[in-house]
Amino acid sequence: MSTDDSSRDAEPRKSELRQWGESLVVAVIIVLIVRSLLFDLFRIPTPSMEENLLVGDYLAVSKLHYGPRTPVSLGIPLTSIHLPGVTFPYHRLPGFAEVQRGDPIVFNYPPDDEPIDRKVHYVKRVIGMPGDTLSVQGKLVHINGASLPLGRGMQQYWTVTKSDARYQIPRGRMEEMGISEVRRTDRAETVRVLATPQGARQIRERSWVRSIEPYVLNSDEYGELMYPSGQGYTPDNYGPVHIPQKGETVELTAQNWDLYRPVITRYEGHAARQMTDSTFAIDGARTTTYTFRQDYFFAMGDNRDNSQDSRFWGFVPMDHVVGKAVLTYFSWDHEAWLPRFGRIMRPIADDEVFREQPVVDQRPDAQTAGLPRADSSSPVQPPVAAGPPSRREARRGTP
Question: Of 76 and 160, which is predicted with more confidence?
Answer without folding.
Answer: 160
